[in-house]
Amino acid sequence: MIDSVADRVTAIDAARSEYLDALLSNGVITDTGVPGVYGKSRDFERVLGGFDRFVTESGVDQNAEVLRFPPVISRADFERSGYLKSFPHLTGSIHGFRGNERDHAQMLRMLESGEEWTGHFHSTDLILTPAACYPVYPLASGELPANGRLFDVQSYCFRYEPSSDPARMQVFRMHEYVRIGTPDNVRRFRDLWLERSKAMLKSVGLDAKAVVANDPFFGRGGAILAASQVEQALKFEMVVPISTPEALTAVVSCNYHQDHFGKAFGIVTADGDVAHTACVGFGLERITLALFMVHGFTPSSWPTAVRTTLGL
Amino acid sequence: MIDSVADRVTAIDAARSEYLDALLSNGVITDTGVPGVYGKSRDFERVLGGFDRFVTESGVDQNAEVLRFPPVISRADFERSGYLKSFPHLTGSIHGFRGNERDHAQMLRMLESGEEWTGHFHSTDLILTPAACYPVYPLASGELPANGRLFDVQSYCFRYEPSSDPARMQVFRMHEYVRIGTPDNVRRFRDLWLERSKAMLKSVGLDAKAVVANDPFFGRGGAILAASQVEQALKFEMVVPISTPEALTAVVSCNYHQDHFGKAFGIVTADGDVAHTACVGFGLERITLALFMVHGFTPSSWPTAVRTTLGL
Fold this sequence. Notes:
The structure is a homodimer.
Chain A: H1 2-25, E1 29-31, E2 38-41, H2 42-58, E3 65-68, E4 72-74, H3 75-81, H4 83-86, E5 93-97, H5 101-112, E6 121-128, H6 136-139, E7 142-143, E8 149-158, E9 171-181, H7 183-203, E10 209-212, H8 219-231, E11 235-241, E12 248-258, H9 260-264, E13 267-268, E14 276-283, H10 284-295, H11 304-310
Parallel strand pairs in A: 3-8, 7-13
Antiparallel strand pairs in A: 1-2, 4-6, 5-6, 8-9, 9-14, 10-11, 11-12, 12-14
Helix pairs in contact in A: 2-10
């Protein structure tokens, strides 16, 4: 039994390496020397941009407040968010040089001799964005309007997890809708997008399955958090095959945070209760990789309906 | 005389604060609590996206290799690039947590008590991208084809320089063409884009002036580098007013690096000489800010020709 699980893992790893090689040799992505960091071709970006617009179009009825953030967030907001408690291992902290000319000269000598040269680098007030919705909660701080708020955000996100699985990039784009309001507001939003995201994926040829999921919490304590998250069904994912039918990968994630962010950022409903929040996030690189796997490396020969939906 | 210079600087600073306030109060950008890091509205992104496409369309005759990179580059390539020698103060180094559960608990206690908590963070193999062209040189390593290479790249860039000038963002998008070849290839490219970029800006109502410029090199030694750069006319900028007619800000930058990157990354021409490189970069946020200043905060009422060019 253990042997067969180990064999299966080996087969999945081999399939992932094979798909990565195919993506590289067909020029869909370009190697940068760092696992999980790639250049993207014009075709890749057209497909990704097409799905990104499809996410926007599919949410027109949401009357969302549209905001686009750069790939960094304020360290102060990050500290309040609780991320460091659950995901220290995925965090990207931005450090800057604070030194004089003598320190600079010393640093260049260390670089020259192959030593660690970042001794004069100290933490700045910026952290790499862990998820596209993080900049939204601090700015919703205070009392919500009667029907709460709903945001449309998209940004690059960072997760420090170098991997040779092409679907596990360290830096990737996530397009999210974020709902902030009463528990009822938020549950309706979640139910709506569970259906809608599945239909969206289906319309571009991705046969997705909804599964209850958990976040990759840090440490042994994290296992308890994960079990509780599953038990309460707080996280759903839409999973599809990317490198191989043997392994399903999340391409959409739908998270109900209960009052976590409401408490952390002092967001209250019009009735004075702590606001609840939920978000649905589309992983744009993963969806693009799944589309290339299903339809092949030549978007111009993809099914007409898919090309129309993606504006290709 | 000194008084009048000081007065002028004060007036420029005041105009910049005033434009920043107007952008914020009109919802064009959103405050994040960190100077130089903003959320962007749907209108801002439409205008920026429109100019971004205009850059692509304006370079169709270049037959560029199109690549899009995430906002990070490999530390090893960064080290080879020489950036740390000239611009240590602008560098953003990405650090990740390397610790066990005990270290994590200690870190959370430090966070709780307001202490610096990044002691268990160490440098990763990633650096924030300093300029959109940086990922290109390592991948052009080796012998070039007969006519050299030409790339079209766009990415977020990072400069660690918090500022209340809305045009000086810490994270911003730059769309570049990059030429790699003989000195003759590269000079022709530079001359072409000096004319073309000026005409492009003019066509959207920005009256740009070309000036010889220098980079903000670090330290006293940097002043010598800057003087030499100006003397050899290696850097041109297209400057326009952004916050005030009293101060001109670069929105396009055209840099001739001579054999700097060719040497650093072992790029050689078909004749076996060290390759020369040049790039022309369009600062997309700055161009967008200049457009809002010239045409107002309502893109739907901008001149028809400008809206057509930008696809608005």
